[in-house]
Amino acid sequence: METEAERRARMQSVAKGGDPIPPMRADSHSTEDPAVETPVEARQGFLGRPVLVVLVGGLVLATVAWLAVALLGY
Predict the structure, then answer these.
(1) Taking the CB of residue 45, how many other CB atoms lie within 10 A of it?
(2) Domain tally, the chain
(3) What is the separation of C-alpha 17 from the centre of its chain, rounded to a whole number of angstroms?
(4) How far is it, in rounded angstroms, from Cα 14 to Cα 12?
(5) What distance in Å separates the CA atoms of residue 59 and residue 18, rounded to the nearest whole number?
(6) What is d(CA 25, CA 3) in angstroms, rounded to the nearest whole number?
(7) What is the pTM of this model?
(8) Same domain? 34 vs 61
């Protein structure tokens, strides 16, 4: 017997050959306890270029601050 979450996951991954993949949006949430979520619902965010830019930018700013304290602190 297929659970509700398995049915939603199967429906989200169904795409006919050649058709564009529809946008990934979460379905209505389940009322099961503990919550059972599909992979789309469980996704917290996307990785990629914006995340890398934030991480590299933070590293550069931390290095600049370190150098400023090292040079001006003594």
Answers:
(1) 7
(2) 2
(3) 26
(4) 6
(5) 43
(6) 20
(7) 0.40
(8) no
What are the structure tokens assigned to 7, written together?
């049915």
- Cβ contacts of 62 within 8 Å, gap of 6 or more: none
Distance, in Å, from the CA atom of 6 to the CA atom of 9, rounded to the nearest integer, reads 5
> Are 20 and 38 found together in one domain?
yes
Does one domain contain both 68 and 34? no
Residue numbers of the domain that contains 32: 1-43
The string of pLDDT tens digits covering residues 36-67 is: 777 777 776 666 678 889 999 999 999 999 99
Q: Does residue 58 share a domain with residue 32?
A: no
DSSP 15: -
* Residues 39 and 50 occupy one common structural domain: no
φ/ψ of residue 35, rounded to 5: -60, 135
